[in-house]
Every structure is written in C-alpha cells, then in structure tokens.
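$ ./design --mode recover --in tokens.txt
reading tokens...
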C-alpha cells in the first residue's frame, strides 16, 4: 500500500531532522574533542621538554633552591624565589579583587535596578577586555608615581604596583561570576527573609551570600588562577630580579622588584640563551609547575562548588 503525499512529506521531514541532529552532534563532538586534544598536546609538549630539563638538573635542587640566576654558563635554577614572588602577587591581588568584586556583585544582584545593572555590569566587564600590557604600563607610569607621592619608598619596578593592577584586572571575573551565582538564588528565600523582618543588607549577607557560596568561592579560585598566570603586568611593572621572600621584612618584597614564574618564562624566551641549554629548558619546567598549580586550583574550585552547591526546585 503506497503512502499518501502527506505521509511521504512527514517521513522526509523526519529524516531531514535526524540528519541535521547527527550533523550537529558530530560538529559539537569534534569541537569538544579538539579542545581536549589541544590541552593534551600542550601538556605533552611541556612534559617532554621538562623531563629533558630534569635529566640535566637535579629536581630537588630545582624545587628547593633559593636562588634564580639565568645565564648561559652555570645558571643557578632554584624556583622558590619565583614561586614566592608569584604567591605575593596572588595574595595582594586577592586582597584587592575579592572584597571589591564581591561588594560589586552584591550591589548588582540585590541593590541595583534593572536599568542600572544593564549599564554597570557591561561597563565593569569592559575591564576584562583591556589588554594586560596596558595595565602594566598604567601601573608603571601612573600607579607607582602616585604611590610614591603617598610616601611609600618604592623602586621603579615593584611588586606592589603590579599586584594592585593584577587585582584590578581580575575584579570583573569575581564580580561577574559571583553576581550570576547570587542572581540564581530563588526570590522565595529573599521574600522569606523580608517576611521575618530582615533588612535588605541582612537578606544579602545572611541569606543570599550563604546560598550562593559555592559559586562565589569558585569565582575566587578562578580569579586567583588567572592572577597566578598573569604575565605582561608583572613583566612591565614588577621587574625581572628574582628575590627570595623575606618573612622578617615583608614590605621589602612588595616595595622592590621581583620576578614571578611567568616573568621568568618570558626572560628565558627573550634573552640570548641558545636552544638546548639548561636555561632554555627551564622555561618548560616552570611552565609545567605553573600548570600543575593552576590545575590543582581548578580542581579545588570544582570540589568546593560540588560540596556546597545548593539545588532549588
């Protein structure tokens, strides 16, 4: 029995939709596989050259050494000064970005009108689109002289200016992700708080923030991961002299130049070191160490988000 024209059209339409869905599925799978392949290729490249470095240099001396002197002949390659400077920049930038970004997120989520939010949030996120080298020159040319006028005994290149500017750079990441997490909190929780006589500030701090704490902490971890991997700001404004952190005089670490892990990688690339030397291969060892740190922080972010996630119907 032959099909009617209507049934034939419906069959062709169904086959067409199935073919399109298979095409979309294949394209999306290829995109996902490509990202995994690229990430794996980067890690494999770092690992191969880092292993070559560790065949030449004692890993114990590399991870516990307190001096970093990059030169063609007899370099001293201890990564602790680079790690300490990276942690200093990360901690100070967190002190700048976390309170400002969280406060901005609370305002955008709980206090700002829809019209105000539609203007302020895109304006705040513009900061994320500014090239980091611009931040670095701004810190060097404007921020450092201004801090000197306040009476701080800063050198021309210093970690304080670089850290403050890194903190300003990551504010949009903290505020945007935190605001999204706060906006996802159901209005019924806010209304329950108001029904009990709570003020807007009490609802914001005692209901909304605890209910969205997983997303807020995730924004902190992701922002700090971004701060750890920042390059151009610390290269331009932080200097390139590796110094070991001095716990007896912490301000000396901030007021003078320092070299982070990313800055040392740039130095290894831009100096006259020839390929195949220990100094050249140190770039890959630093990169692999930096990757391990940021990867661990991302795992921590996922663990915190999963541990404290609130699900609402």
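writing sequence...
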């Amino acid at each position: 029995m032959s099909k009617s024209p209507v049934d034939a059209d419906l069959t062709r339409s169904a086959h067409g939709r199935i073919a399109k869905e298979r095409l979309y599925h294949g394209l999306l799978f290829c995109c996902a596989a490509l990202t995994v392949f690229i990430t794996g290729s980067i890690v494999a490249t770092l690992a191969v050259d880092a292993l070559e470095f560790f065949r030449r240099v004692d890993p114990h001396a590399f991870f516990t050494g307190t001096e970093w002197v990059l030169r063609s002949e007899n370099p001293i390659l201890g990564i602790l000064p680079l790690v300490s400077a990276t942690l200093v920049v990360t901690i100070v930038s967190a002190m700048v970005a976390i309170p400002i970004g969280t406060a901005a997120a609370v305002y955008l989520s709980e206090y700002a009108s829809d019209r105000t939010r539609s203007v302020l949030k895109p304006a705040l996120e513009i900061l994320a689109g500014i090239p980091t080298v611009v931040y670095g020159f701004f810190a060097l040319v404007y921020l450092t002289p201004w801090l000197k006028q306040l009476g701080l005994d800063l050198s021309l290149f210093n970690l304080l200016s670089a850290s403050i500017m890194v903190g300003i750079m990551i504010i949009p990441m903290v505020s945007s992700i935190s605001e999204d997490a706060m906006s996802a909190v159901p209005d019924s929780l806010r209304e329950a708080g108001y029904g009990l006589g709570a003020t807007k500030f009490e609802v914001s701090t005692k209901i909304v923030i605890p209910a969205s704490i997983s997303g807020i902490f995730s924004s902190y971890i992701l922002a700090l991961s971004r701060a750890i991997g920042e390059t151009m700001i610390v290269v331009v404004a932080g200097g390139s002299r590796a110094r070991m952190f001095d716990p007896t005089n912490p301000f000396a670490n901030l007021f003078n130049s320092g070299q982070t892990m990313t800055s040392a990688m740039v130095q290894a690339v831009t100096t006259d070191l020839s390929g195949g030397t220990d100094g050249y291969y140190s770039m890959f060892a630093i990169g692999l160490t930096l990757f391990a740190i940021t990867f661990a922080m991302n795992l921590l972010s996922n663990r915190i988000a999963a541990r404290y996630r609130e699900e609402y119907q």
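exit 0
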